[in-house]
Design goal:
By secondary structure, the protein is of the alpha/beta class. The chain has one domain (5-245): 3-Layer(aba) Sandwich (Carbamate kinase), CATH 3.40.1160. It contains 8 helices and 11 strands. The chain has helices at 25-39, 57-62, 67-91, 113-121, 139-149, 183-188, 196-204, 219-224; strands at 5-10, 44-49, 96-100, 109-110, 125-129, 154-159, 164-165, 177-178, 180-182, 209-213, 231-234. It has a 9-stranded mixed beta sheet with strand order 4-3-5-2-1-6-10-11-9, sandwiched between helices. α1 (25-39) packs across α3. The longest helix is centred in the first third of the chain and has 25 residues, at 67-91. It starts with a strand and ends in a 17-residue tail after the last strand. The protein binds uridine-5'-diphosphate. Uridine-5'-diphosphate (UDP) is lined by residues 11-13, 50-52, 56-57, 70-71, 74-75, 77-78, 131-132, 134-135, 137-142.
Length: 251
């Protein structure tokens, strides 16, 4: 396996599957199974899940409610998703721990970095809930920050598109995919990989990001086995080469 310790970022929205809201059981079990496969091969797996399938802070502002209150609601939404993933993993006999950025001691451990690392060393899948526990951040920021803290080798950002394109492939059919791109080129070309706070954290700490399609079964395992899936963002970007022109694919 190419990486020893990974931080897998899953979007809350992807958990909806084909539904309009909430958690799709099939998608949840698919994610759990994929995680089990790579964990059983000795990869240390930490996971951050978003909450967009339940609530986002900006929605509160749209209702005329307080933004900060909304952000805390969003963080609680990520705890719900994290608990669902924890249960799904336990159902298939994967040992897990849920560590939360907000103290909710009845259901999760508080986030303590050394503890997280210890769990990983013992082969447990560690799920980080409640983002970083502060408003005005996103779960992408949580993924970057936690990955740096636990010294993960890479952030794997699972999305429904199979990489980073020259333009949004869902809107522009002529968009082409990058195999590899540098942090600087992403900024210069104004490409949307993650929010800038999260992205800058990775850039400044030289933590590579791979954006890949998590909804195609087996992709996580293939990626970790070294198949050139998705787009790798790192400091060199190897000439920011565009892959042989590929049409956008989506699961
Ligand atoms: N959130 C926050 N601080 C954090 C992480 C999350 O305030 O450290 C809130 C924020 O309101 C965000 C919501 O939780 O909109 C859900 O997370 P996110 O939008 O990142 O989820 P995703 O888009 O990945 O489903």
């Amino acid at each position: 396996m190419t990486y020893k310790r990974i931080l897998l970022k899953l979007s809350g929205e992807a958990l909806m599957g084909t539904q309009q809201y909430g958690i799709d059981a099939e998608r949840l079990m698919q994610y759990a199974t994929e995680i089990k496969t790579v964990a059983s091969k000795g990869v240390e797996v930490a996971v951050v899940i978003g909450g967009g399938n339940i609530f986002r802070g900006v929605q509160a502002a749209a209702f005329g409610l307080d933004r900060v209150q909304g952000d805390y609601m969003g963080m609680l939404a990520t705890v719900i998703n994290s608990m669902a993933l924890q249960s799904a993993l336990e159902k298939i006999d994967v040992s897990t721990r849920l560590l939360s950025g907000l103290t909710i001691q009845q259901v999760c451990e508080p986030y303590i970095r050394r503890r997280a690392v210890r769990h990983l060393e013992k082969g447990r899948v560690v799920i980080f809930g409640a983002g970083i526990g502060s408003p005005y951040f996103t779960t992408d920021s949580a993924a970057s920050l936690r990955a740096i803290e636990i010294e993960a080798d890479v952030v794997l950002k699972g999305t429904r598109v199979d990489g980073i394109y020259t333009a949004d492939p869902e809107k522009d059919p002529s968009a082409t995919k990058f195999e590899e791109i540098s942090f600087d080129a992403v900024i210069e070309k104004n490409l949307n990989v993650m929010d800038m706070t999260a992205f800058t954290l990775c850039k400044e700490n030289n933590l590579p990001i791979i954006v890949f399609d998590m909804n195609t079964e087996g992709n996580l395992e293939r990626l970790l086995a070294g198949e050139p899936l998705g787009t790798l963002v790192n400091s060199s970007g190897k000439s920011d080469r565009a892959a042989t022109v590929q049409p956008a694919t989506r699961a």
